Amino acid sequence: MSYVDVNGLSLYYEEHGESTGASTATPLILLHGGFGTGDMFGPVLAGLAENRRVITADLQGHGRTADIGRPLRFETMATDIAGLITHLGLPRADVLGYSLGGGTALRLAIQHPDLVRRLVIASNPAKRDGWYPEVRANFDQMGRHLAEPFKQSPMYAVYEKVAPRVADWPVLLDKVGDLTRQDYDWTGNVPAITAPVMLVYGDADSISTEHITEFYRLLGGGLRDGNWDGSTRPASRLAIMPGRVHTDLLEAPGLAAAVVSFLDTETLVPPPMGMPG
User: Fold this and answer.
1) What predicted TM-score, i.e. pTM, was given to this entire model?
2) In total, how many domains does the chain have?
Protein backbone atom coordinates (compact mmCIF):
# COMPACT_ATOMS: atom_id res chain seq x y z
CA MET A 1 0.00 0.00 0.00
CA SER A 2 1.77 3.12 -1.25
CA TYR A 3 1.35 6.63 -2.59
CA VAL A 4 3.21 8.34 -5.40
CA ASP A 5 3.14 12.06 -6.20
CA VAL A 6 2.26 12.56 -9.88
CA ASN A 7 1.02 15.74 -11.54
CA GLY A 8 0.13 17.31 -8.21
CA LEU A 9 -1.85 14.22 -7.17
CA SER A 10 -1.03 11.81 -4.35
CA LEU A 11 -1.98 8.61 -6.17
CA TYR A 12 -2.71 5.50 -4.11
CA TYR A 13 -1.67 2.09 -5.43
CA GLU A 14 -1.24 -1.47 -4.19
CA GLU A 15 0.95 -4.31 -5.44
CA HIS A 16 -0.18 -7.93 -5.56
CA GLY A 17 1.07 -11.25 -6.79
CA GLU A 18 4.56 -12.10 -8.00
CA SER A 19 6.78 -9.11 -7.25
CA THR A 20 10.07 -10.82 -6.39
CA GLY A 21 11.39 -10.81 -9.94
CA ALA A 22 10.94 -14.56 -10.35
CA SER A 23 8.15 -14.05 -12.88
CA THR A 24 9.03 -13.00 -16.42
CA ALA A 25 5.49 -11.77 -17.09
CA THR A 26 5.03 -8.07 -17.76
CA PRO A 27 3.44 -6.34 -14.74
CA LEU A 28 -0.28 -5.62 -15.08
CA ILE A 29 -1.94 -2.38 -13.98
CA LEU A 30 -5.67 -2.47 -13.15
CA LEU A 31 -7.83 0.66 -13.45
CA HIS A 32 -11.27 0.59 -11.78
CA GLY A 33 -14.62 1.99 -12.82
CA GLY A 34 -16.40 5.16 -11.70
CA PHE A 35 -16.98 5.57 -7.94
CA GLY A 36 -14.89 2.45 -7.36
CA THR A 37 -11.42 1.57 -6.10
CA GLY A 38 -8.79 -0.99 -6.98
CA ASP A 39 -10.72 -3.35 -4.71
CA MET A 40 -13.31 -3.59 -7.50
CA PHE A 41 -11.06 -6.23 -9.09
CA GLY A 42 -11.42 -8.57 -6.12
CA PRO A 43 -13.31 -11.28 -8.09
CA VAL A 44 -10.50 -11.62 -10.65
CA LEU A 45 -7.43 -10.48 -8.73
CA ALA A 46 -6.24 -13.91 -7.62
CA GLY A 47 -6.47 -15.30 -11.13
CA LEU A 48 -4.68 -12.33 -12.64
CA ALA A 49 -1.94 -12.20 -9.99
CA GLU A 50 -1.19 -15.92 -9.82
CA ASN A 51 2.00 -15.65 -11.88
CA ARG A 52 2.57 -11.93 -12.35
CA ARG A 53 2.96 -8.65 -10.53
CA VAL A 54 -0.34 -6.77 -10.46
CA ILE A 55 -0.75 -3.12 -9.48
CA THR A 56 -4.13 -1.58 -8.64
CA ALA A 57 -4.47 2.20 -8.60
CA ASP A 58 -7.19 4.47 -7.20
CA LEU A 59 -7.85 7.20 -9.78
CA GLN A 60 -8.25 10.92 -9.01
CA GLY A 61 -10.87 11.57 -6.34
CA HIS A 62 -11.65 7.86 -5.99
CA GLY A 63 -10.98 5.52 -3.10
CA ARG A 64 -7.85 6.43 -1.18
CA THR A 65 -6.67 9.04 -3.70
CA ALA A 66 -7.82 12.48 -2.59
CA ASP A 67 -9.19 14.85 -5.20
CA ILE A 68 -7.30 17.95 -6.35
CA GLY A 69 -8.42 21.18 -7.98
CA ARG A 70 -8.70 20.08 -11.58
CA PRO A 71 -11.53 18.61 -13.65
CA LEU A 72 -11.81 14.84 -13.94
CA ARG A 73 -10.66 13.97 -17.46
CA PHE A 74 -9.54 10.74 -19.11
CA GLU A 75 -6.51 12.50 -20.57
CA THR A 76 -5.15 13.73 -17.23
CA MET A 77 -5.86 10.44 -15.46
CA ALA A 78 -3.93 8.69 -18.26
CA THR A 79 -1.00 11.02 -17.58
CA ASP A 80 -1.25 10.12 -13.88
CA ILE A 81 -0.93 6.43 -14.71
CA ALA A 82 2.00 7.15 -17.03
CA GLY A 83 3.65 8.78 -14.02
CA LEU A 84 2.93 5.70 -11.90
CA ILE A 85 4.51 3.41 -14.51
CA THR A 86 7.60 5.64 -14.60
CA HIS A 87 7.73 5.75 -10.78
CA LEU A 88 7.67 1.96 -10.64
CA GLY A 89 10.62 1.81 -13.03
CA LEU A 90 8.71 -0.22 -15.60
CA PRO A 91 9.81 0.09 -19.22
CA ARG A 92 6.29 -0.99 -20.20
CA ALA A 93 3.19 -2.40 -18.53
CA ASP A 94 0.12 -4.35 -19.50
CA VAL A 95 -3.01 -2.38 -18.61
CA LEU A 96 -6.59 -3.50 -17.94
CA GLY A 97 -9.17 -0.78 -17.52
CA TYR A 98 -12.83 -1.25 -16.66
CA SER A 99 -15.50 1.35 -17.52
CA LEU A 100 -14.09 4.74 -16.43
CA GLY A 101 -10.74 2.98 -16.04
CA GLY A 102 -11.16 1.65 -19.57
CA GLY A 103 -11.35 5.18 -20.93
CA THR A 104 -8.24 6.05 -18.93
CA ALA A 105 -6.41 2.98 -20.22
CA LEU A 106 -7.39 3.76 -23.81
CA ARG A 107 -6.10 7.32 -23.51
CA LEU A 108 -2.89 5.98 -21.94
CA ALA A 109 -2.28 3.80 -25.01
CA ILE A 110 -3.02 6.76 -27.30
CA GLN A 111 -0.96 9.35 -25.41
CA HIS A 112 1.89 7.13 -24.18
CA PRO A 113 2.15 4.19 -26.61
CA ASP A 114 5.69 3.40 -25.52
CA LEU A 115 4.48 2.54 -21.99
CA VAL A 116 1.77 -0.01 -22.92
CA ARG A 117 2.67 -3.51 -24.07
CA ARG A 118 -0.85 -4.96 -24.17
CA LEU A 119 -4.18 -3.36 -23.42
CA VAL A 120 -7.48 -4.77 -22.15
CA ILE A 121 -10.53 -2.52 -22.40
CA ALA A 122 -13.47 -3.85 -20.40
CA SER A 123 -16.94 -2.38 -20.85
CA ASN A 124 -16.01 1.02 -22.26
CA PRO A 125 -16.55 2.52 -25.72
CA ALA A 126 -14.18 4.48 -27.97
CA LYS A 127 -16.73 7.29 -28.31
CA ARG A 128 -19.51 8.67 -26.13
CA ASP A 129 -22.19 7.67 -28.62
CA GLY A 130 -21.13 4.06 -28.08
CA TRP A 131 -23.11 4.04 -24.83
CA TYR A 132 -26.80 3.26 -25.26
CA PRO A 133 -29.00 6.42 -25.25
CA GLU A 134 -30.56 5.60 -21.89
CA VAL A 135 -27.09 5.33 -20.35
CA ARG A 136 -26.10 8.72 -21.75
CA ALA A 137 -29.35 10.13 -20.33
CA ASN A 138 -28.30 8.88 -16.88
CA PHE A 139 -24.89 10.50 -17.32
CA ASP A 140 -26.65 13.78 -18.10
CA GLN A 141 -28.40 13.67 -14.72
CA MET A 142 -25.32 12.88 -12.60
CA GLY A 143 -24.36 15.44 -9.97
CA ARG A 144 -24.28 16.43 -6.30
CA HIS A 145 -28.08 16.50 -6.07
CA LEU A 146 -27.79 12.69 -5.95
CA ALA A 147 -25.26 12.70 -3.12
CA GLU A 148 -27.77 11.86 -0.37
CA PRO A 149 -29.72 9.17 -2.29
CA PHE A 150 -26.45 7.56 -3.39
CA LYS A 151 -25.36 7.25 0.22
CA GLN A 152 -27.60 4.17 0.32
CA SER A 153 -25.52 2.52 -2.41
CA PRO A 154 -22.62 0.04 -2.12
CA MET A 155 -20.47 2.65 -3.92
CA TYR A 156 -20.79 5.08 -1.04
CA ALA A 157 -20.21 2.36 1.55
CA VAL A 158 -16.78 1.75 0.01
CA TYR A 159 -16.06 5.47 -0.41
CA GLU A 160 -17.00 6.26 3.19
CA LYS A 161 -14.70 3.54 4.44
CA VAL A 162 -11.51 4.55 2.62
CA ALA A 163 -11.73 8.12 1.25
CA PRO A 164 -9.26 10.60 2.81
CA ARG A 165 -12.01 13.27 2.80
CA VAL A 166 -15.48 11.74 2.93
CA ALA A 167 -17.00 15.24 2.65
CA ASP A 168 -15.79 15.28 -1.00
CA TRP A 169 -18.54 12.80 -1.99
CA PRO A 170 -20.77 15.48 -3.62
CA VAL A 171 -17.70 16.85 -5.44
CA LEU A 172 -16.98 13.41 -6.87
CA LEU A 173 -20.54 13.11 -8.17
CA ASP A 174 -20.24 16.52 -9.79
CA LYS A 175 -16.91 15.68 -11.39
CA VAL A 176 -17.97 12.25 -12.65
CA GLY A 177 -21.12 13.83 -14.06
CA ASP A 178 -19.11 16.54 -15.78
CA LEU A 179 -16.72 13.94 -17.21
CA THR A 180 -19.40 11.64 -18.55
CA ARG A 181 -21.28 14.53 -20.16
CA GLN A 182 -18.22 15.48 -22.22
CA ASP A 183 -18.54 14.43 -25.85
CA TYR A 184 -15.60 12.44 -27.20
CA ASP A 185 -14.77 10.30 -30.20
CA TRP A 186 -11.41 8.53 -30.23
CA THR A 187 -12.22 6.19 -33.09
CA GLY A 188 -9.77 8.10 -35.29
CA ASN A 189 -6.97 7.28 -32.82
CA VAL A 190 -7.80 3.60 -32.37
CA PRO A 191 -6.22 2.21 -35.60
CA ALA A 192 -2.89 3.81 -34.64
CA ILE A 193 -2.68 2.04 -31.24
CA THR A 194 0.50 -0.02 -31.35
CA ALA A 195 -0.34 -2.43 -28.52
CA PRO A 196 -2.48 -5.52 -29.17
CA VAL A 197 -5.90 -4.85 -27.63
CA MET A 198 -8.47 -7.15 -26.06
CA LEU A 199 -12.05 -5.86 -25.83
CA VAL A 200 -14.30 -7.41 -23.17
CA TYR A 201 -18.05 -6.84 -22.83
CA GLY A 202 -21.09 -8.46 -21.30
CA ASP A 203 -23.71 -9.71 -23.75
CA ALA A 204 -26.17 -7.25 -22.15
CA ASP A 205 -23.66 -4.45 -21.61
CA SER A 206 -24.24 -0.68 -21.53
CA ILE A 207 -22.32 -0.32 -24.79
CA SER A 208 -24.23 -1.02 -28.00
CA THR A 209 -23.39 -4.13 -29.99
CA GLU A 210 -23.05 -1.92 -33.06
CA HIS A 211 -20.28 0.06 -31.39
CA ILE A 212 -18.57 -3.05 -30.04
CA THR A 213 -18.37 -4.30 -33.63
CA GLU A 214 -17.15 -0.91 -34.84
CA PHE A 215 -14.46 -0.77 -32.15
CA TYR A 216 -13.22 -4.27 -32.91
CA ARG A 217 -13.10 -3.59 -36.65
CA LEU A 218 -11.01 -0.47 -36.02
CA LEU A 219 -8.51 -2.77 -34.33
CA GLY A 220 -8.37 -5.04 -37.37
CA GLY A 221 -10.83 -7.62 -36.08
CA GLY A 222 -13.95 -8.93 -37.78
CA LEU A 223 -12.77 -7.99 -41.26
CA ARG A 224 -12.25 -11.46 -42.67
CA ASP A 225 -12.11 -15.15 -41.91
CA GLY A 226 -9.21 -16.07 -39.62
CA ASN A 227 -8.26 -18.99 -41.89
CA TRP A 228 -8.36 -22.63 -40.85
CA ASP A 229 -4.94 -22.34 -39.19
CA GLY A 230 -5.53 -18.93 -37.63
CA SER A 231 -2.87 -17.35 -39.84
CA THR A 232 -5.05 -14.34 -40.70
CA ARG A 233 -6.42 -13.86 -37.21
CA PRO A 234 -5.93 -10.27 -35.95
CA ALA A 235 -3.56 -9.41 -33.12
CA SER A 236 -6.43 -8.03 -31.08
CA ARG A 237 -9.23 -10.04 -29.49
CA LEU A 238 -12.89 -9.74 -28.57
CA ALA A 239 -14.47 -11.50 -25.60
CA ILE A 240 -18.20 -11.48 -24.86
CA MET A 241 -19.11 -12.69 -21.38
CA PRO A 242 -22.50 -14.46 -21.47
CA GLY A 243 -25.22 -13.42 -19.06
CA ARG A 244 -23.37 -10.30 -17.92
CA VAL A 245 -24.31 -6.63 -17.72
CA HIS A 246 -22.05 -3.61 -17.24
CA THR A 247 -22.12 -3.72 -13.44
CA ASP A 248 -21.26 -7.39 -12.93
CA LEU A 249 -18.80 -7.95 -15.76
CA LEU A 250 -15.82 -8.37 -13.42
CA GLU A 251 -17.61 -11.29 -11.76
CA ALA A 252 -17.87 -13.26 -14.99
CA PRO A 253 -16.49 -16.81 -14.74
CA GLY A 254 -13.62 -17.24 -17.14
CA LEU A 255 -12.77 -13.55 -17.36
CA ALA A 256 -9.43 -13.82 -15.59
CA ALA A 257 -8.44 -16.87 -17.65
CA ALA A 258 -9.32 -15.10 -20.90
CA VAL A 259 -7.27 -12.04 -19.96
CA VAL A 260 -4.28 -14.10 -18.81
CA SER A 261 -4.36 -16.09 -22.06
CA PHE A 262 -4.28 -12.85 -24.05
CA LEU A 263 -1.43 -11.39 -21.99
CA ASP A 264 0.67 -14.57 -21.98
CA THR A 265 0.43 -15.57 -25.63
CA GLU A 266 3.85 -14.95 -27.13
CA THR A 267 2.49 -14.33 -30.59
CA LEU A 268 -1.15 -13.60 -31.20
CA VAL A 269 -1.04 -14.94 -34.76
CA PRO A 270 -0.08 -18.64 -34.64
CA PRO A 271 2.37 -20.05 -37.19
CA PRO A 272 0.92 -22.12 -40.05
CA MET A 273 0.03 -25.67 -39.08
CA GLY A 274 0.18 -28.82 -41.12
CA MET A 275 -2.91 -29.70 -43.13
CA PRO A 276 -5.35 -31.76 -41.07
CA GLY A 277 -5.48 -35.44 -41.91
Assistant:
1) 0.94
2) 1
